[in-house]
Design goal:
The protein has 158 residues and is of the alpha+beta class. The protein has a single domain, classed as 60s Ribosomal Protein L30, Chain: A, CATH 3.30.1330.200. It is built from three helices and ten strands, in the order E-E-E-E-E-H-H-E-H-E-E-E-E. The strands form two sheets. The chain has a five-stranded mixed beta sheet with strand order 1-3-8-9-10, with no helix packed on it. The relative contact order is 0.22.
């Protein structure tokens, strides 16, 4: 099995004997998509909700922002042949552990942007592990759709 590690603002779609993995989701949000018929999936590591704060960065790395990255992710899944009826969507991240006074509330704002996009496109979130005050690492095993989350202390599936 090969593994593709995603950094902040990266997005990837793939199939086959692979794992997609991203690390240290604090206020960032991972949106993970998997098509059970194709055994194909995608992941995006979103840092901020709106690209208008830095259009140049959005052009270079659309996955950095929810509003530019999510359309790219779902378009790439469609190009692979993914169908909504076979697809689940799961969310991980959106913590606020560095923002104890909720001054910026980036985690909540990221989640709101993701929920709004998914609702407009008619996608339901089938599971989530969001909020709180922990950092999460997430891995998607494409052959099975198994989604594993860890926080450095424990590991669980979603």
């Amino acid at each position: 099995m090969t593994r593709r590690d995603l950094g902040i603002g990266d997005l990837e779609v793939a199939s086959g004997d692979q794992e997609l993995k991203t690390y240290a989701l604090g206020s960032c949000v991972a949106v993970v998509v998997w098509d059970s018929a194709l055994k194909a999936g995608g992941m995006i590591h979103i840092a901020l909700p709106e690209a208008r704060i830095n259009p140049q960065k959005a052009a270079e790395k659309p996955g950095y922002f929810a509003d530019t990255g999510l359309p790219v992710l779902f378009s790439a899944m469609a190009r692979l042949g993914a169908h909504r009826r076979n697809t689940w969507v799961k969310l991980i991240g959106g913590s606020s552990f560095f923002d104890t006074n909720n001054l910026f509330d980036v985690g909540r704002r990221n989640l709101t942007a993701v929920y709004e996009y998914l609702a407009k496109q008619g996608f339901a979130v089938t599971a989530e592990d969001v909020g709180g005050s922990i950092s999460r690492t997430v891995g998607l095993f494409l052959p099975t759709g198994e989604l594993t989350i860890s926080n450095g202390i424990r590991r669980w599936n979603l």
